[in-house]
Write a structure and sequence with these properties.
alpha+beta; 48% helix; 16% strand; rod-shaped
C-alpha cells in the first residue's frame, strides 16, 4: 500500500523516491570521503522481473556510457537501486536525471510489451473460440439415424 492507501502495482510508473541516507559511506563530508561509492536509492514500488532485466541489461549500460557515465553500474536489490561507482555530486550534476529518463523509457517499453502480449493472448482466445464454435457446428450437423 502507498501512503494514500492505494496498491502500488507494476502499472504505476517506476521511479526512484529517495536516497537511503543511512546506507551512504560514513566518511562522506570528511577529508577521507571516497570519490566513488554506491548510492542506494529507494524505488516507488516493487520492480517487476522485466524491469529488473532491463535496468541491469546491456542497453542501459550502453545508454549510460553514451551519456558520459561509463563507470556507473545499476543493480536492483529488492526495492532499492544500487547506483555503483558514483557520488552524490555526480547524481546532482545530471546522473539522477538520466536515471529517471532511463526508468521512464524502460517503463514504457515494458508496458508496451505487456500490452502486445495481452493483445496476442486475446487474439489467440478469439481464434480458439471461433474454432470451438466451428467444431460444435460440425458436431451439431451430425445425426445418428
Amino acid at each position: 500500500m502507498t501512503a494514500y492507501g492505494e496498491l502500488a502495482t507494476s502499472e504505476q510508473p517506476l521511479r526512484l523516491a529517495s536516497i537511503l541516507t543511512s546506507a551512504l559511506p560514513a566518511l562522506l563530508g570528511t577529508s577521507q570521503a571516497p570519490t566513488q561509492y554506491t548510492v542506494p536509492a529507494v524505488f516507488s514500488r516493487q520492480v517487476s522481473v522485466p524491469e529488473k532485466t532491463a535496468i541491469e541489461g546491456p542497453e542501459t549500460v550502453r545508454r549510460l556510457t553514451e551519456r558520459g557515465y561509463p563507470q556507473v553500474t545499476l543493480q536492483v536489490s529488492d526495492r532499492r537501486l544500487l547506483i555503483g561507482r558514483t557520488s552524490l555530486e555526480q547524481l546532482e550534476d545530471g546522473l539522477a536525471h538520466e536515471i529517471a529518463l532511463t526508468l521512464t523509457d524502460i517503463g514504457r517499453a515494458v508496458a508496451r510489451e505487456r500490452d502486445e502480449r495481452a493483445a496476442a493472448a486475446t487474439a489467440r482466445q478469439s481464434v480458439e473460440a471461433d474454432r470451438a464454435v466451428d467444431v460444435q457446428r460440425s458436431v451439431d450437423r451430425i445425426v445418428f439415424e
